[in-house]
Amino acid sequence: MNTPSRSSERRMGVGAKRNLSLFARYATLIGLALMVLTFSLLSPTAFPTVSNFVNVVNQASLVVIIAVGLTMTVMMGELDLSVGYVASLCGILVVGFMTTNGLPVWLAIPAVICIGAAIGFINGVLVAKLKINSVIATLGVGTMLTGLAFAYSAGAPLVSGVPPIFVDISLGRWIPGIPNNIVLMALLAGLLWFVVERTPFGQEVQAVGGNASAARLAGISVDKIKIIGFMLSGAGAAITGILLASRLGSGTPGAGDSYLLTAFAAVFLGSATLRDGEFHILGTVIGALIIAFGFNGLNIFGAPTFSQYLLQGAILIVAVGISSFSRLLAES
């Protein structure tokens, strides 16, 4: 019996690796298409409609905003576990600044975004300068933020005197038929995509994430890049908290906490999309949309609330697994 030569075996191995790599890159998109198709066939009158798709993207918009900011730190090989707590605190602060301190909307919003960036600066200094593990540093900061949020709000939602113009930011429509949050999501995600993919700063961020020691030898200020990355993550979380408070019409303690796991799931799911385990802005957006469509389908079919948590946890585990598998393929 004839046996394949070593060269043919090598070609078969290369071909198998290429096929696995292609599958890993597009598996999430295939999964999204199959999920949309399945939900559409099971609920043809409710799911595959323009209004429902707009609603899904609108629901995903806040996750996208917080997740693309988080992507900046994950790209550098760090984790920011404070983003959900930053969102909760900033949602309370923006309402409190307007209702208690009398600040106008146009001043309260940028002030709170600056506070979010300042929290990110603290995280960055703890990680980059003091060399504290990012998990420990950001989790510790996030826990402290929870205490500050409860202290500022006395543990109760701030609902009285919220200006209608503030509520209209999330619930209004600058473009007919398109909720404002979708517009803001597109602008912010597009801006960060441009920064990462088309500017020297973005190249430096990717270099730090690839090999921080090599980046330092190449003359890149690794500490500065990491601090800026954490500041962008904090600012993104602050914007999410502001928009969430606008959507709810109140500043509610703990309102943004749940965005932490959803944001991480979107980031890791996105790293397995279109690239071999690399974290990138477009992938994060796609990851957030996959999660949003999954939640929407469950809601349409009346699935119990606990099923959403099961889905979210499963997505996070699968996303990390696919991302790790993609990186192993790329490195082998």
UniProtKB/TrEMBL annotation:
Main location: membrane
Keywords: Cell membrane, Membrane, Transmembrane, Transmembrane helix
Chain segments annotated as transmembrane: 20-41, 53-74, 81-99, 105-128, 135-154, 174-196, 227-246, 258-274, 281-303, 309-330
Keyword Membrane appears in the UniProt entry: yes
One Gene Ontology molecular-function label: transmembrane transporter activity
Membrane association type: Multi-pass membrane protein
GO cellular component terms attached to this protein's record: plasma membrane
Compartments where found: Cell membrane
Keyword match Calcium: no
Record Pfam families: BPD_transp_2
Name under which the protein is recorded: ABC transporter permease
